[in-house]
Amino acid sequence: MEPILFQAGYLTIRKVEQAARGGLQFILDFPNKEVQLSFSDVIIDYLTNHQNQRADFQDALHLQLQETDLPGFEQTIKSLFAAIPYTNYVNNTISNFEGYYASVIYAYLASLGLDITAEDVTSLGRIDLTIRMGDVIYILEFKVDGSGDALKQIKERNYQQKYQTAGKKIILIGIDFDSNSRNVTGFSWENA
After folding, report:
1. Taking a C-beta distance cutoff of 8 angstroms, is the pair 16, 27 a contact?
2. Which of these, 76, 77, 112, 183, is most buried using a 10 Å CB contact count?
3. From the CA atom positions of the chain, what is the Rg in Å?
4. Half-sphere exposure (CA, 13 Å, Cβ side) for 64?
5. CA–CA distance, 63 with 50 (Å, rounded to integer)
6. What is the 3-state secondary structure (H, E, C) of the chain?
7. pLDDT tens-digit series, residues 62-79
8. CB 144 within 8 A of CB 98
9. Are strands 136-144 and 169-178 parallel, antiparallel or unpaired?
10. Domain coordinates of the chain in residue numbers?
């Protein structure tokens, strides 16, 4: 995949490093913000078929995070998953996997140009998604077909501790999905 993205101009060489045994290692990156954002839009369209609604969802998500409007954020996420055609799930099991739901949300947030980290490593595990926006840090955990324990995992593993010295408000968000309804079944949050 990397060579295709490089040849198509979606990636460029950011840095060349000396690798083991005298070889070279090429560090690839997006050449600019516009290319990065348009690539995210392509991924969104592939995962969701939201070509006609993508901008509306993007605008809503950005505003809701900026204003810490978590009820609105929850509603927008539910709406965007409800708008994914059922035909996307025919003859595959993609809706059974947490990675699918995380990828859709990640692609949307990446398309906004936000400072986000997927699989944010801590001493006790990985935060599914961290969003740093202004004076707020959002810590998100996703679960599929669980018992509504996404927020519980954040708290049990004390994921917020990594950011407690940042001097910012930290909001913990647990999002539970159901593979049958292919949508959010639990959305809980609290301030750390």
Report:
1. yes
2. 77
3. 18
4. 17
5. 19
6. CHHHHHHHCCCEEEEEEECHHHCEEEEEECCCHHHHHHHHHHHHHHHHCCCCCHHHHHHHHHHHHHCCCHHHHHHHHHHHHHCCCHHHHCCCCHHHCHHHHHHHHHHHHHCCCCEEEEEEEECCEEEEEEEEECCEEEEEEEEECCCCCHHHHHHHCCHHHHHCCCCCEEEEEEEEEECCCCEEEEEEEEEC
7. 999 999 999 999 999 999
8. yes
9. parallel
10. 1-31, 32-191
pTM over the 0.85 mark? no
* 126: amino acid identity, one letter: R
* Residue carrying the six token digits 């669980």: 146
**Structural tokens at position 185:** 């079944």
User: Which residues, including other chains, have CB under 8 Å from residue 184's CB and lie 6 or more apart?
Assistant: 74, 77, 78, 81, 175, 176, 177
The amino acid that residue 84 corresponds to is I
The two three-digit tokens of residue 76, written as one number? 């927008």
List, for residues 124-150, the tens digit of each pLDDT value.
999 999 999 999 999 999 999 977 789
